[in-house]
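anyone seen this seq b4? input:
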Amino acid sequence: MIERSRDLSPAAPRTLGMNRRELLTAAVAAPLALSLPARSDARGAGGTPTVLVTADLESHVVALDASTGRIIRRIRTLPGPRSIEAAFLTWGVVANTASGRLTIVHAPTLRVRRVIEGLRAPRYTAVHPTRWPSDTDPSAAVLAYVTDSARNEVVTVDIDRGRILWRTAVPGPARHIGVTPDGELLWTALGTKAERIAVLDLDDPRRPRLVRTLAPPFLAHDVVCSEDGSHVWVTSGDRRRLAIYERDGRRPVELLAAGAPPQHVAFRGRTAFVASGDDGTVRLHAHDGVLLNESRVPLGSYNVTSYGTDVTTVGAVAPSLGRGTLALLDRRGRVRRVEQVARAAHDACLVVS
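predicted toks r here
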């Protein structure tokens, strides 16, 4: 149950506490247009920490040096790149929603290596935290889960091989999506202002299974798992609130005040960056929800992306859909630089090039 509503005044941190019905359709293999190079794991491989930013109105992805903000390359894509998600710092998975395709960017070369067809309206992507079936097997697959809002599906994609492996039906237009760090559960909001959230079991990572839905205390927008795997943060699409759930919970254990909806969340270790594009703010919270800092960013900075501590000293980046900028924040949530990158910049991710 909800314990209490919290305001944003500073307080001493406290620690939060930390089955199945299949609705599956047949797997569909997508055409393979290009050959991917041998997979490389960017962790520990050296290279330049790089931000990939979607230039929505100009049909390309902008690659910037994460340390300096310098533009390295503009990578041509299909029209309308909307969301982008990193896979093991080596691949950038771009959802071209209008054309129903995914563009796969290879980070070490900063080039498009594959276009995957077979979706109708891909929205957002989450990546399984380990390769399947074994993280030590060099032939194991990198699995991504893509929400297809037009088909009410979560689609499992083998990024290396460029194939759709499975389609899991969900009871609504799935959009934002998150996977727990242990790779056991997947949460997805069933709409941009969602009355329900679907929870899927990843016992077989190739074939997610719907296990339940839950009703948030508001119309939900973003769903993001904490890095320690204990909680899921759910943002609102209709009010200035944010809910924190235990990973297996059905009701929030905490409600926080937040900026104007919709908000988006990104974790970096034990802190969470929460962006409100309509307010032009990014708030930094402790893992238990206590507000640590608030910074001004360009209006329209709806999305926010943060990075593992082993990759870069940058805390987070926030692209602006309205201004076409990219704000780079440090680990304390302070804006260090703002770069003009395009006419509109919807989403960003970190890779190593």
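Residues 35 and 113 are 7 Å apart (CA to CA). Confidence is low (pLDDT under 50) at residues 1-45. kinda curious what u guys think
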